[in-house]
Amino acid sequence: MSRRTFKLPSWLPIDPYILALIGTVVLAALLPASGTAADVAGGASTGAVALLFFLYGARLSTAEALDGLRHWRLHLTVLICTFVAFPLLGLAGKGLVPYVLTPQLYSGFLFLCLVPSTIQSSIAFTSIARGNVPAAICAGSFSSIAGIFLTPLLAAALLGNSGGGFSADALLKIGLQLLLPFIAGQLLRRWIGGFLTRHKKVLGYVDRGSILLVVHTAFSEGMVAGIWHQVTPARLGALLAAEAVLLALMLALTWFGAKRLGFDRGDRIAIQFAGSKKSLASGLPMASVLFGAHASLAVLPLMLFHQMQLMVCAVIAKRRSRDPQDELREGPVTAASGPVAQIRVPVG
To answer: Helix crossing, 295-320 with 120-128: angle to 10°?
Structure first.
């Protein structure tokens, strides 16, 4: 007799890592780190953030990213969507406070609008939709590089004291934990890049394990401080609704706006997927540095938005992959040909 195994629909990409993140949140709720354990976890989390940004810097090929500068209009469009359009919509969300969102949830909502775009999932969805994959690679790389510098500056300008207070000490911490490790990774890439490439799979577990540690530390601090009493099911539902509107607006803006700017089909697909998404991998460690003890509420909107964007963009990518051949001839198809049977999107 054949065994029947349960599989999620291909259009519903529930990332297993999202389940790990949810499990980490539940663990922090049941067994929050406190006292000496909290001090140890905090120190380990600080080291994990520095390690993450060192690895980001060491992996990111600046030379390859600069090679894509000839397509500067596309990359500038994605950067404007990521660091101008998103923040403006986030600021517009201020009108939801306090009737729909609490001030703390709104800070997290605005923060998710400030983080850079993804790399891996933008590439994956662009490939599935048969769009301009090289453009998606470069656009994601540019966004990640810019986000190292722009996200803390935008957070300081737009979040103010709600971000935990942006004093000279806070900016120094940002430099030491984010910028310095990233620059060190870039400088050492010449010597360690090959090692990182050969051990990419193992280092992927290091990345994800580090982020889980950051999440557990942040949510433990939130439990000890008692801030989770402010989040009711009704508030969570309202947050999801606000994020759904935000995602819908950005998907429409990137698709139809790119058409008005004269981009062909392949470029429009790259712009839509790179310009409408936010990076969980970059945002979580940044939030732990920027928000301190309030990081748990700050990262909650980003975690929810990340899973929402994966599910919605998976459906869009599958539909784009079935476009008629005359639409495909609008521009060169640079993605790999052939049907994609299953969507596997890494956290990005």
So the answer is: 20
Distance CA 73, CA 83 (A): 15
- Tell me which DSSP letter residue 227 carries: G
Q: How many residues does the chain have?
A: 348
Distance from chain centroid for Cα 340: 24
Structure tokens at 34: 């406190």
DSSP 329: T
Helix (H, G, I), strand (E, B) or coil at 83: helix
pLDDT band of residue 134 (cuts 50, 70, 90) is confident
- Distance, in Å, from the CA atom of 75 to the CA atom of 33, rounded to the nearest integer, reads 42
User: What pTM did the predictor assign?
Assistant: 0.78
Model confidence pLDDT, tens digit, residues 94-128: 999 988 898 888 999 999 999 999 887 888 899 88
Cα separations in angstroms, 179 against 29, 171, 326: 31, 10, 46
DSSP string, 119-185: SHHHHHHHHHTT--HHHHHHHHHHHHHHHHHHHHHHHHHHTGGGGT---HHHHHHHIIIIIHHHHHH
Q: Is the peptide bond before 87 cis (omega within 30 degrees of 0)?
A: no
| Phi, psi dihedrals of residue 114, rounded to the nearest 5° | -105, -15
- 332: tokens are 């060169």
How far apart, in whole angstroms, are the C-alpha atoms of residue 180 and residue 174? Answer: 9
